[in-house]
Write a structure and sequence with these properties.
Elements (H helix, E strand, L loop, with lengths): L2 E5 L7 H14 L4 E6 L1 H8 L4 H4 L2 E5 L10 H7 L4 H11 L4 E4 L3 H12 L10 E7 L2 E6 L9 H17 L7 E5 L10 H11 L4 E6 L11 E3 L2 H26 L3 H21 L7 E3 L5 E4 L6 H16 L2 H16 L1
Parallel strand pairs: 1-2, 1-4, 2-3, 4-11, 6-9, 7-8, 7-9
Antiparallel strand pairs: 5-6, 5-10, 10-11
């Protein structure tokens, strides 16, 4: 079981949610050890409430600076060397931690991770990849926000890495890959997706072609490829829709005595639906293509969601996603030549 470095100061909620989230992850994973990176004065009060066995597996790594949520990526690299985010990534580079988690500024985390850890050979930019609910299981989508724009070649690399992770880590024998577009027809889309369409088709992955937004959840594809701008907008739209559905159901089922009685009978079903659509269940997206494990948590993650991001990082380290991607890319390149 790995030791992980956790940036507990960043994000919209910071230590009051990140530290309890880290303790929750420790309680659920008995062999896990965490380095809590941040201001000791902000961390200690939360640790004092933990049980002795959990507290024994949490160590504070001091950091007295935080990357603001509006910090420009280049400024974060230059000015925030003592920040909780930078130190957490540095711990991975030094080998002291198997991976790191942060809920902070996505652009800054992407820039710092690329600067400190570098990408594996054959990868220009590391995208953020995560599982999303879909019919009969999950779809794995990338990029979810690390790279606002992407070239056609980078989208080809995203497709290849997504296919590798879906196959070698998640056990899908032949992952079906789709490129997100405004239509399924070959004539649709701008020049970049058109060029990427041709490159991915020739890359050797099981490519189904263009897909539309509703196909993300259809169960017809296993890997959804897009740039970080489009992927992040789609992700936030999904989260908003999930909240709308659950909020509307709650409002309607409490509208009258009769609907409350119906809600009581339907409670088991409603709980299962609510759990399946809860965005917190899918929090934590791994940057694939780096030489180390970096997991991005939602900036507004509460302790439940942040614990889930840490569990995602544990899985990424145990399954050695960086090594898996690096080895498979070498093998693919060798076979292609």
């Amino acid at each position: 079981m790995p030791t992980l470095a956790i940036d507990v100061m960043s994000g919209d909620l910071g230590a009051p949610e990140c530290v309890p989230g880290a303790l929750l992850a420790l309680a659920r994973t008995p062999d896990l050890h965490l380095e809590l990176v941040g201001d000791p004065a902000a961390i200690e009060p939360h640790l004092a409430q933990a049980s002795s066995p959990v507290r024994a597996r949490a160590r504070i790594v001091p950091a007295h600076d935080v990357v603001p949520m509006d910090e420009l990526p280049r400024a974060a690299i230059r000015r925030r060397k003592g920040s909780s985010m930078r130190i957490a990534v540095d711990r991975v580079k030094e080998g002291a931690a198997g991976g790191c988690v942060s809920a902070g500024n996505t652009g800054a985390l992407t820039a710092i991770a690329h600067f400190v850890l570098k990408t594996v050979p054959g990868v220009e930019r590391a995208p953020i990849m995560s599982a999303l609910p879909a019919a009969h299981g999950h779809a794995y989508m990338l990029d979810l926000g690390a790279n606002v724009s992407a070239t056609a070649e980078q989208l080809r690399q995203f497709a290849l890495m997504g296919s590798i992770v879906a196959r070698d880590v998640y056990g899908i024998a032949t992952p079906r890959v789709g490129l997100l577009n405004i239509g399924e027809e070959d004539i649709k889309g701008h020049e970049t997706v058109q060029a990427a369409h041709a490159l991915i088709a020739a890359s050797g992955v099981h490519y189904l072609g263009f897909i539309e937004g509703d196909d993300i959840f259809s169960g017809e594809v296993d890997v959804v490829v897009t740039d970080g701008f489009t992927g992040n907008v789609a992700l936030k739209a999904m989260e908003g829709l999930a909240r709308l559905i659950t909020g509307t159901l709650r409002e309607e089922f409490t509208r009258s005595l009769g609907t409350r009685a119906v809600a009581l009978m339907a409670r088991p079903v409603l709980r299962r639906v609510g759990a399946a659509l809860d965005p917190r269940r899918y929090n934590g997206a791994c940057m694939v293509g780096l030489r180390g494990v970096v997991v991005k948590s939602h900036g507004r993650a509460d302790r439940t969601a942040f614990a889930r991001a840490i569990e995602t990082a544990v899985a990424a380290v145990v399954q050695d996603i960086p090594g898996c991607v690096a080895r498979s890319l070498v093998a693919e390149t060798t076979q292609g030549s």
